[in-house]
Inverse folding.
């Protein structure tokens, strides 16, 4: 079997695949070098976020447990959906040959139940994502606003209690918005695949929808952070987070500066290099043959998954510290000197700074 695979995947194809991988790595490497000033700032910000995570390592245990809890919640819903298909009755139907055949007809409520169950699962999944962001933000905020020589006790437990307690409505509403955004985007993407040559009106509408969805997604990004820090409602947090960033000249260009795409590029390069090293080692010390490529691909996918989870947590930590830094600036305080030394290098908005008399400090 291995000889057949080797014959079908000849040396020329292997060289072509390796050349493609190295070219892709080279392109990403060139992008990293061209944006090195952003990379350097990103590294410093990641260092600050890493220190915050080091003080709250329990998050890496709590977040997977929350995902496991969501799967446990999904289990009975899926079971009920399976049993719902069994609700119906057998009816006789005359076939084309004049003979009667037995057909199964489901009850009328089954399709409606399926739709309700699927929407519930989508909403629950989106709400759990927002709950994770809430827990991360609440935990990191307690670390940020604590004194230098003290450590907040039970910060993760407190954030969990608020996320699934007083602020559960905020989390669910945020999840509902994000679920609606994902459904609209899925509908737009589906329409894009079905339309062969869309007209100019369709393109304009599609661009408008994508812009609105991106704006809602971005607004929600800092709203849930602010709600976790202050405990306010969703709508009030959305308004105050926007006013806070605007009042302190902190532009949303931060997301572009500390770009998730740069982190994803770094992850891809590291995982690709790791996969190549694994493949080379397996080729040198084992006799797996072509199977070594599959093992290397599996190692690449596993490392991508692990690093992707780490980057997701790190991204939320960075956003939370960013909002905390904005609150500090708004109140004229410095809770973490090392954070201010780094975040002061971030680009600011090009708008005019409001006068001190018109500024209303935020009370948290």
């Amino acid at each position: 079997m291995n000889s057949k695979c080797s014959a079908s995947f000849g040396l020329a194809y292997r060289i072509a695949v390796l050349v493609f991988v190295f070219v892709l790595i080279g392109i990403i490497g060139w992008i990293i070098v061209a944006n090195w000033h952003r990379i350097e700032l990103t590294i410093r910000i990641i260092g600050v976020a890493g220190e915050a995570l080091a003080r709250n390592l329990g998050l890496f245990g709590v977040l997977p447990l929350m995902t496991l809890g969501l799967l446990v919640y999904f289990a009975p819903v899926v079971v009920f959906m399976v049993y719902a298909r069994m609700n119906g009755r057998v009816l006789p139907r005359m076939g084309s040959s004049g003979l009667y055949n037995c057909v199964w007809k489901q009850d009328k409520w089954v399709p409606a139940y399926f739709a309700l169950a699927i929407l519930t699962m989508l909403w629950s999944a989106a709400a759990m994502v927002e709950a994770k962001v809430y827990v991360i933000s609440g935990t990191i905020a307690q670390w940020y606003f604590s004194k230098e020589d003290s450590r907040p006790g039970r910060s993760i437990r407190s954030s969990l209690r608020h996320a699934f307690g007083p602020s559960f409505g905020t989390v669910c509403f945020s999840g509902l918005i994000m679920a609606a955004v994902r459904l609209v985007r899925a509908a737009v993407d589906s329409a894009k695949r079905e339309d062969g040559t869309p007209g100019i009106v369709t393109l304009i509408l599609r661009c408008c929808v994508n812009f609105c969805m991106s704006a809602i997604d971005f607004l929600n990004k800092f709203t849930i952070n602010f709600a976790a820090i202050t405990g306010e409602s969703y709508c009030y947090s959305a308004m105050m987070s926007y006013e806070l960033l605007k009042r302190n000249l902190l532009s949303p260009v931060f997301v572009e500066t500390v770009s998730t795409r740069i982190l994803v590029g770094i992850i891809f390069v590291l995982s690709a290099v790791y996969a190549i090293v694994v493949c080379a080692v397996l080729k040198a010390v084992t006799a797996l043959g072509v199977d070594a490529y599959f093992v290397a691909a599996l190692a690449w996918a596993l490392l991508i998954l692990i690093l992707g989870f780490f980057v997701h947590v790190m991204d939320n930590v960075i956003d939370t510290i960013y909002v905390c830094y904005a609150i500090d600036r708004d109140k004229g305080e410095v809770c973490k000197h090392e954070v201010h030394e780094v975040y002061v290098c971030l680009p600011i908005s090009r708008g005019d700074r409001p006068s001190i008399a018109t500024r209303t400090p935020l009370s948290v």
Observations:
- Residues 352-364 have pLDDT under 50 and may be disordered.
- The radius of gyration is 26 Å.
- DSSP finds 13 helices and two strands in the chain.
